[in-house]
Design goal:
It holds the Pfam family RimM. By secondary structure, the chain is mainly β. The chain has two domains: 7-89, RimM (Elongation Factor Tu (Ef-tu), domain 3, Beta Barrel); 100-162, PRC-barrel domain (SH3 type barrels, Roll). The chain is built from two helices and 13 strands; from the N terminus they run ββαββββαβββββββ. The strands form three sheets. It has a six-stranded mixed sheet, with no helix packed on it. It is elongated.
């Protein structure tokens, strides 16, 4: 049986809430209450961080109880902890939909079919999503806008995408 061990960032501990050991979690999911349904929430290294046993909505996510936390002080020590879920705990997306995490490791090919590199990460610096590309020939990574113009074709089932980098990438006007 093959399992997908990629971890998806789903939330971050905001700290304690109240005096009875509840924890506030900022959710990065469409439905914040789904955090309870995903099972144990993991640290980046894959170890269990929190097992939410009950939650209620909060302005930025949820407030709830976790099996690992008994006091407000314990919850406060976890402030800033990023919480992840293995990709295989998510439902399969509908046809023509995908999770951004599904792009990781995908080959990036140019219009001639040559492999330019692979997708190392998906970043968002405040505007649109950017694909961080690890070049096939080695060297520093570079960024490709994740737009219809720059990535007009996605062939995720075959493990590749077509890249048409903007003309200004790598070009610089002479001084």
């Amino acid at each position: 049986m093959t399992t997908d061990s990629r971890l998806i960032l789903v939330g971050q501990v905001g700290g304690g809430f109240g005096v009875r050991g509840e924890v506030r979690v900022t959710a990065f999911t469409a439905d914040p209450l789904a955090l309870t349904a995903y099972g144990p929430l993991l640290r980046a290294d894959g170890t269990v961080a929190l097992t939410l046993t009950s939650t209620r909505p909060d302005k930025n996510g949820v407030v709830g109880r976790a099996k690992e936390i008994a006091t407000k002080e314990q919850a406060d020590t976890l402030r800033g902890l990023k919480l992840h879920v293995p990709r295989d705990r998510f439902p399969e997306p509908d046809e023509d939909e995908f999770y951004l995490a599904d792009l990781l490791g995908v080959q990036v090919r140019d219009t001639a079919g040559a492999v330019m590199g692979t997708v190392k990460s998906v970043q968002n610096f405040g505007a649109d999503d950017m694909l961080e590309i690890a070049p096939a020939a080695g060297g520093p990574t570079w960024y490709l806008p994740f737009t219809k113009e720059a990535t007009p074709e996605l062939h995720l089932a075959e493990g590749w995408l077509l890249a048409v980098p903007p003309t200004e990438v790598g070009e610089r006007e002479p001084d």
